[in-house]
């Protein structure tokens, strides 16, 4: 009987999402929305297997990061994206950088660790950002 109980407790576990993966999925759903949508709409697009409260938690975290906005609609809120996946990654990078005391050291370490192609791209982007009129 103990073996039987042990066998029952060995159900396959659902795959755990990677950090930020659910945020990306929520943003993707919001970008496909016809306009501002409620939490239930987002939950449905994600497959509906997530708890409603989990979806609200993710939306609230995205709101704190500036990746979504919300507006009151009746007794609840509707949500809209302000960032795409690249924007969300940039927000994460900025938050990490803001949490460090020596920004120069962090940025220097980041830049020197980039592969040559990425370093070149970063230089081009910085040059374009410095051009007047843009």
UniProtKB/TrEMBL annotation:
Residues 8-17 have a biased composition (Basic residues). Keywords: DNA-binding, Transcription, Transcription regulation. Pfam families: Penicillinase_R (PF03965). GO terms for molecular function: DNA binding. The keyword Transcription applies. InterPro entries: BlaI_family (IPR005650), WH-like_DNA-bd_sf (IPR036388), WH_DNA-bd_sf (IPR036390). Residues 1-20 are annotated as: Disordered. GO terms for biological process: negative regulation of DNA-templated transcription. Belongs to the BlaI transcriptional regulatory family. This is Predicted transcriptional regulator.
